[in-house]
Specification:
- By secondary structure, this protein is an all-alpha fold.
- The chain has a single domain, classed as Rhopdopsin 7-helix transmembrane proteins.
- Helix content is 77%, strand content 0%.
- It is built from 11 helices and no strands.
- Helix 1 runs antiparallel to helix 3.
- The radius of gyration is 20 Å and the shape is globular.
- 36% of the residues are buried.
Length: 274
């Protein structure tokens, strides 16, 4: 079965395509410089690895998902039912990279002012928690999408409960860090935590939108629902979340200054010595 897309839906798709193409280019450039200057990985540093990590960063993956979703919408004016289902699934799946990026930026705040691997100011238990909440997020999104696609409400409800619990945990973790970070982190790390906390209200709206996609009335359907809801609770919220998370990472790991250049020089010396 085919249906005709509204003009408003196509306009949102064009806006999403343009915005996330710009986001991808900007984050790729900034992330490459951050990877080159700070390099927290155990593998040997190289331009190719910096580009790879930058290309497949969480915001990079989100941008690619949104670009693919928009291109799918714009590819035809009369999409099939399977295409609409795929586009709706991409809208839902895009939530997981945002949670993953929160986890990664929190970890980078603990390494603010440091270069190289294994120099986090967080205790090991805290790092484990920051890494750990990504798994239930992925499980929750998969359960929600699969449950909605094959019409098994039990799977969708289980995923929704997990997602709500994880979001509450993230809010509690960030709130605790905002209070305790003065005794743990550098000034740059504390500022990064505050910027992450600014992203949480917008992430809450995005989580609610995800739940409404699964259980709400048809006006929340991203394919043929209310365009204002799609733009306000989906696109605009993601723009704010991405902006705050990119700002938090940039504050924790600024791309200018002499420290990064010294780091590069020291690596060159070590490689020359070997």
């Amino acid at each position: 079965m085919e249906t005709s897309l509204s003009v408003g839906k196509r306009e949102i798709a064009i806006a999403e395509l343009v915005i996330f193409s710009l986001v991808f280019i900007i984050q790729l450039s900034i992330r490459f410089l951050q990877e080159w200057r700070y390099w927290h990985h155990k593998k040997r540093q190289s331009s190719a690895r910096c580009l790879l990590y930058s290309w497949f960063s969480m915001i990079g993956i989100l941008s690619q998902i949104r670009i693919a979703s928009s291109a799918m919408v714009l590819s035809t004016s009369t999409p099939t039912e399977s295409m609409l289902t795929a586009e709706s699934s991409l809208q839902s799946v895009g939530l997981s990279p945002l949670f993953f990026e929160v986890s990664l930026v929190l970890l980078r705040c603990g390494q603010a002012g440091e270069h190289g691997p294994g120099k986090s100011k967080y205790p090991k238990s805290l790092r484990v928690m920051m890494h750990g909440f990504r798994f239930p997020v992925a499980v929750a999104i998969i359960l929600g999408v699969v449950g909605g696609s094959i019409e098994m409400p039990a799977l969708g409800k289980a995923g929704s409960i997990v997602l709500i619990v994880v979001f509450a945990f993230v809010c509690g973790l960030v709130s605790w860090l905002a209070v305790k970070s003065r005794t743990i982190l550098t000034l740059a790390g504390r500022r990064g935590i505050l910027l992450i906390s600014c992203a949480l209200p917008f992430l809450l709206v995005r989580v609610i939108y995800f739940l409404l996609l699964e259980y709400g009335p048809s006006k929340f359907n991203p394919a043929y629902g209310d365009i204002g809801i799609l733009a306000g609770m989906g696109l605009v919220m993601e723009i704010f979340i991405v902006s705050f998370l990119m700002a938090a990472r940039t504050v924790a790991e600024p791309i200018s200054g002499s420290a990064g250049m010294k780091h590069i020089a020291s690596i060159d010396e070590e490689q020359g010595g070997n």
